[in-house]
Design goal:
It contains five helices and six strands. By secondary structure, the chain is of the alpha/beta class.
Length: 170
């Protein structure tokens, strides 16, 4: 399974600083931590436990993963901070996932909009016409996630090999 998740709500940059360093250092708000914890509970309820966690270098992404809470799996998942998950475009995100070794079965990617949202839409394809999944047409707010069942190896990942199975949008 592939889970694509947008980081939870973060504080705004101090004093309106729009620089890269300031953006990367923004922590989660208390409500962002709570929402991420709820998403972790929801993921555990569907039986998801990651083998691999790919997080962007932004503090809010790693804090989102931490706030999801523990997953009942042994061994613990491999956690990789991936610079390409920050402001690189949906094609780069897909390329990163395609480079994943096939020893990993369950991956969660925690990143940012608009790139993550565009990748979700690309992989979902016409599935967003399904009434249960049409919520994606309204955006991908913080702490949203989309779960895909994958048919085939990671290096062959395309919309035709991904089935959107669950959407949770705040």
């Amino acid at each position: 399974m592939l889970v694509l998740m947008r980081h939870a709500e973060a504080f705004h940059a101090p004093h309106g600083d729009l620089g890269r360093a300031s953006d990367l250092s923004r922590p989660l708000t208390p409500s962002g931590r709570r929402r991420a914890g709820q998403r972790g509970t929801q993921l555990r309820e569907i039986g998801f436990h990651p083998d691999l966690v790919l997080v962007s270098p932004a503090i809010r992404s790693s804090e989102t993963y931490t706030a999801l809470g523990p997953f009942p799996a042994a061994p613990a998942p491999t956690v990789v901070q991936e610079a390409g998950l920050y402001e690189s475009g949906p094609d780069t995100l897909l390329d990163i996932i395609r480079l994943t070794p096939d020893i990993f079965n369950n991956i969660i990617v925690i990143g940012h909009n608009p790139d993550l949202y565009h990748l979700v839409l690309d992989l979902a394809g016409r599935a967003i016409d399904d009434p249960d999944k049409s919520i994606l047409s309204r955006g991908f707010p913080t702490a949203s996630l989309a779960c895909f069942r994958i048919d085939g190896p990671w290096h062959e990942l395309t919309a035709r090999r991904a089935v959107l199975s669950l959407v949770l949008c705040a």
